[in-house]
Design goal:
The chain has 135 residues and is α+β, with helices and mostly antiparallel strands. It folds into two domains: 32 residues; 94 residues, Sandwich (Immunoglobulin-like). It is 22% helix and 39% strand.
Length: 135
């Protein structure tokens, strides 16, 4: 093998090592953050025609429901009354809160906090818009 060929082989080996190291590091970072929000109803950024009777949050694993919080604020940052969070029937990774007050047309933000069984707390928020009348 020529010296050029040896250099190419070494470079290819080094690039492979960097790729494997990146993959292991990414998987390690993912393992540290087990619980994360996978989706919601209403969906983040959705515009819906009428106010939802409840809000559902879909997590990557079962949250500790006793320490899970969900808050809803309107465009003026006023809190909207919600029921206590509960696990959805038949889906232990979904949390449901009922909307207790009629929602006017406008922009709303859901703020949540949930803890995984490993004790790590995650927080986040998402928004949706109600375009239609109250429910």
């Amino acid at each position: 093998m020529t010296s050029f060929g040896i250099r190419i082989a070494r470079l290819a080996s080094l690039m492979g090592l960097v790729g494997v190291t990146s993959l292991v590091t990414a998987r390690g970072a993912e393992a540290r953050f087990h619980l994360h929000l996978r989706g919601s109803t209403p969906a983040d950024g959705a515009t819906i025609s009428s106010a939802p009777p409840n809000i559902q949050l879909f997590f990557s694993e079962r949250p500790e429901i006793k320490v899970t919080t969900v808050n809803l604020v309107d465009g003026g940052n006023a809190n909207v009354a919600l029921s206590a969070p509960r696990l959805a029937s038949g889906a232990d990774t979904a949390v449901v809160v009922d909307v207790k007050a009629p929602l006017a047309a406008g922009v709303y933000t859901v703020k949540w906090s949930a803890m995984a069984s490993d004790g790590h707390v995650q927080r986040g928020s998402f928004g949706f818009t109600v375009a239609g009348a109250k429910h």
